[in-house]
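I would like you to sit down with the pair of lines that follows and say whether tokens and residues agree.
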Amino acid sequence: MKLSKAQLVAVIVAVVGIIFFSAKAVIVKLAYVYEVPAVSLLLLRMSFAFPVYVIIALIRKPSSPEQIKGKDYLWLIAFGIIGYYLASLFDFLGLQYVKASLERIILFVYPTLVILITWIFFKKAPTRVQIMAILLSYAGVFITFSEELGVAGDENVLLGGVLVFMSAFTYASYLVGSGYLIPKFGVVVFTSYAMIISCVCVVIHYAVTSNDNLLSYPSEVYWLGFLMAMISTVIPSYMISYAIKHLGAPNFSIIGSLGPISTIVLANIFLDERLSYLQVVGAIVVIGGIILVSRKK
């Protein structure tokens, strides 16, 4: 099938957005070299991204304001906390213990968690193909992760894997729960509101738990925080929304399989991370399972 000009542009935008998103784990690992605590690094990311989301929230208005009720704003706060605060926090904490490439492989299973959560809470049973895809995905994660445990021999690797999986779970919960709010607010407005709520949560968390001076780090840390906010948060969030709008979610999910691959390549270049042949096989199995689970019936 020949792509239209608009679809070709959307594919290019999708690929660039996915690569930008995938760079986040690499940037986080680079910042950890300077011994920055996870919460402080998360605050730097949110501080740089916050003004952009506030400006967009002021400019753009909800898609269907007449449908929005008071309880919808309460749910918006809840999903902002779950989807962008907790998911990011678990991810940043997990990256202290696992490779960037392994982190992306574990995070990539979130579509399977969406199906499982929908099954549990909304009684929508998965198809046989989806069940096979879920089992395939987790088999790939097990292959990759068990190899890493054998190489590292460190219980912290297991802790890091659990934390990253919790990030995937909270993000999947956010996707399931926010489904009915997005049509009311619109993707751009909803994302902006949720990110603003997340920023507030991170500031509170930092104020309550941290003792370090956020202004005491080398200039490289702030540049990395800025890159993380712009290149791996703000810009790709809107690029991917654009791509999904023009390609549809099923087609985008196939392109999205580039995520773990691009992270592995970037981690190899910038962090000198190496995956064994068995881990590469595990990554391919995970990607195959997610492509299968994302296909239309």
Summary: Residues 5-294 form one domain. The mean pLDDT is 85. The chain has one domain: 5-294. The chain is about 80% helix and 0% strand.
